[in-house]
Amino acid sequence: MGEDLGEWDDSSSLVPEIPARAVIIAKEDCIISGLAEAEEIFDYFGLEAERLFDEGEFVPAASTVITVCGNARKILQSERLVLNFMARMSGISTITRECVLCAGGRARIAATRKTTPGFRRFEKKAVFLGGGDTHRFNLSDAVLIKDNHIKILGLEECLCRARNRASFTKKIEVEVESLGDMLKAATGGADIIMFDNMAPAEIAAGIELLQNYGLRTRVLLEASGGITRDNIKEYAACGVDVISLGALTRNARWIDLSLEIEKDAS
What we know:
Elements: H1 2-5, E1 19-26, E2 30-31, H2 35-44, E3 48-51, E4 58-59, E5 63-71, H3 72-103, E6 108-110, H4 120-129, E7 143-145, H5 147-153, H6 155-165, E8 172-176, H7 179-187, E9 192-196, H8 200-212, E10 220-224, H9 232-237, E11 242-244, H10 247-250, E12 257-264
Helix pairs in contact: 2-3, 3-4, 5-6, 7-8
């Protein structure tokens, strides 16, 4: 709050502390999210807010999503912070829903840790509200053996250490860039295999190879790297269980929302 208000708000102080009513309008179609956060901010300023849609619901353009009543000056002071949360989170929910629909239910759509520092939990929540999977919130949620781990220790040693040191409750995931490493991971105790920056055709060939070796049912398969709305359908068709996209948070644009003072509330 303090970041946005500063030491002295000359703009809002121009407005008398009189009763007022305002609405937040979605200027474009979207999957709305950030409503709970908006209500918390309004409550902090002593304002009464009412949401007209549920979190994660489709909102047609020109719809009123929230009404707020109370001190006119407080409404203006809360305006930008509320819109920042809602616009950012709704943008993520909207692109997530688009990707879920493009995948056609053939794979779970997940986020990554490519998030804004300090804002991750809200961005992950927006992914969930859009119908996606939050994936790991932080490094402690699962063991993910990436290319740099493998370069330092080798894949076999990484898997050995992970099995010996990680809790039995944690899944072990291995990022692979070749079908050879895929087989090593599948036979070495990995719970999840992530195909990193591999083309759909190569992934499909890898899945067929796992089936031939009788290993397909032992592992969960994830595709990641270079995946967007434009090519997600191809990845979903190749047979993976999960598709993770940094694009859900990195490429999401802010939804156009506006707070408008409607009338005196007295």
